[in-house]
Amino acid sequence: MPAVVQRHLLLCATPSKPRCCDPAVGQASWNQLKQRIRELGLDVGSQAPVLRSKVDCLRVCMAGPVLLVWPDGICYGRVTPAAVDRIVDQHLLAGQPVEDLVIGRTGWRP
After folding, report:
1. Is residue 82 a part of any domain in this protein?
2. Does residue 1 lie within any of the structural domains?
3. Distance of alpha carbon 18 from alpha carbon 99, whole angstroms
4. Cis (ω within 30 of 0) for the bond into 110?
5. Within a domain: residue 54?
6. Residues whose CB falls within 8 Å of the CB of residue 20, separated by 6 or more in sequence, listed in order
7. What pTM value is reported for the model?
8. Domain of life here (predicted)?
9. Domain that includes residue 29, residue range
10. Bridge partners of residue 76, in order along the sequence
11. Closest CA to 13 of 5, 2, 4, 24
12. What CATH number does residue 71 fall under?
């Protein structure tokens, strides 16, 4: 039986109409996210997989790139490659949001 997905990370990384982030920073952050998830063995096929999706826009339009951690409902802003490392280490692995990067909470907890 396949493992249950623990989290889904949505990163607005390469907006077609850049309003809130530099697409180059978004792409670098996306590349770092992919690398870290693979390095840690958290990708699809692991016991506690983390899905990741690169999206055009999350309609937050501020402080981009923006990363939404689902189902936690935490939105992070200014997600540089260095911020990706902090979010993965502190939030995904240790279960503690990185408060100085949080720009909102969705309230969509199931």
Report:
1. yes
2. no
3. 25
4. no
5. yes
6. 12, 60, 61, 62, 63, 64, 66
7. 0.89
8. Bacteria
9. 7-105
10. 67, 102
11. 24
12. 3.40.30.10
Token pair, residue 66, equals: 């923006």
In this predicted model, what pLDDT tens digit does every residue of 73-105 receive, in sequence order? Answer: 999 999 999 999 999 999 999 999 999 999 999
For the record, the structure tokens of 110 come out as: 């199931």
Residue labelled with tokens 């670098």: 28
- pLDDT over 70 for what percent of the chain? 90
Helix (H, G, I), strand (E, B) or coil at 25: helix
Would 59 be classed as within a structural domain?
A: yes
Tell how many helices (H) and how many strands (E) occur in the chain: 2, 5
Residue 60 structure tokens? 């937050």
Residue with tokens 């690398």: 35
Q: Is-contact 100 107, C-beta < 8 A?
A: no
